[in-house]
């Protein structure tokens, strides 16, 4: 039996990361757990985010996962280091892969980052970038209209273009960056719109693609890549409404997804983490 | 004092990898050792390549390196696994990073690989690609004229364009690939020419850029990234003619390089490896 890779997220955004993981690692089996009931994590306290994340992690550890991917910017910012130190399996988040990719692409060392207000305020991306190269200049911009727009399904057309143009205006006006990190897992769904608005001279980086690439390296590094070529059977779990989750997932994936069941995480006693 | 990262190559080609390492990891110190005297490794036996590589590795281990980068396709193919199993520091090669990047970029799963005759015959890239995704189709092409062309300094103009066009014709005629791996460390020097000939719809991947990106991740994963922001002092060593090496290095780097000394590797007794 294939040993699965666990993917956790505060909701549906991490599905873009899961999709890239499945594309770049087609032999691997993934178990996705989205905490849609308590989403979004952005406005929550660090303590709450840590508690919720540990509940998800403990649920997946029982399924014998060989690696954990934190497909949520907020959870990565608050728990990555702690999980890496505590768990006996490799743990990767979505922030550093995007930062490293941006450093690779940028020629002028001026990098833009867009994300939710929480992610931008946390300065997780500037910190990750500058810790590697102190000469990098970062222009950050919170884009609150993007998540509701994506979840409502406004993905193209004049209305979508107008929202994207108005939201990105402050970043475009600065006109110095050559690389833009999509620092929110929802944004790859409107990557084409963002690319079109920013111009083809800007390298737009999707954290999901880069996280999948790094997951591939870490598995290879640990000699833990799956060799069995049989079609993997992925599993999706949600803490919220199953039908709503399935609807979004089926919109974002080429094939229908198996949303197995509702998970009641609140029942995990707090002593478990 | 900063703990250095060792970079070994059969000659000067690995300097393109070193250049990317220095750009993407500007706080790190690098020690480069090029075995120019016994270059190229391509036509040599596996036993010889292994012996020469171990001599270089033993020389660098005495300099207390914290990571080893094998910036040579032939040496990677023959020694990566053995070095990873034997050394107590992380070891990375140039083949897998290029393969993983190609998998990330390719949408149609048709990937081209160009390299020296030795690298193409070894099938190291197709093996790395297909081991991750068995549905990938690889078109390989040996490009023997490229290394002499780059070393002679024919980097632009009608003569260079003619060589590149004639050499790449078989690959271009197939016209299916959407991604092309430069599977030789010399080729990034003529990346623009290759991109121009293949067309802008082809994603051209430089192994050096991707290797540097993965070195950055592995260092972070081991919490071994340098934090000191002082300008690092890199060192370059060659087993061959110092002036010839310096000439090539100075052509490829923005700043003059310090070629410290000639290293006589033959003096390492074979029992040392």
TrEMBL record, chains A, B:
Keyword Cell wall biogenesis/degradation, does the record have it? yes
The keyword Oxidoreductase is annotated on this UniProt entry: no
Please list the residues that bind substrate.
9-10, 41-42, 73-74, 185-186
E.C. numbers:
5.1.1.3
Q: What class of enzyme is it?
A: isomerase
Q: Which reaction does it catalyse?
A: L-glutamate = D-glutamate
Q: In which pathway does it act?
A: Cell wall biogenesis; peptidoglycan biosynthesis
Known Gene3D superfamilies for this protein?
3.40.50.1860
Q: Which residues form the signal peptide?
A: none
Q: Name one GO molecular function term.
A: identical protein binding
User: Which InterPro entries does the record associate with it?
Assistant: Asp/Glu/hydantoin_racemase (IPR015942), Asp/Glu_race (IPR001920), Asp/Glu_racemase_AS_1 (IPR018187), Asp/Glu_racemase_AS_2 (IPR033134), Glu_race (IPR004391)
* UniProt-listed Pfam families: Asp_Glu_race
Catalytic residues at 72, 184
Briefly state the protein's biological role: Provides the (R)-glutamate required for cell wall biosynthesis.
Q: Which NCBIfam families match?
A: glut_race (TIGR00067), PRK00865.1-3 (NF002035)
UniProt similarity note: Belongs to the aspartate/glutamate racemases family.
Q: Which protein is depicted?
A: Glutamate racemase
The gene for this chain is: murI
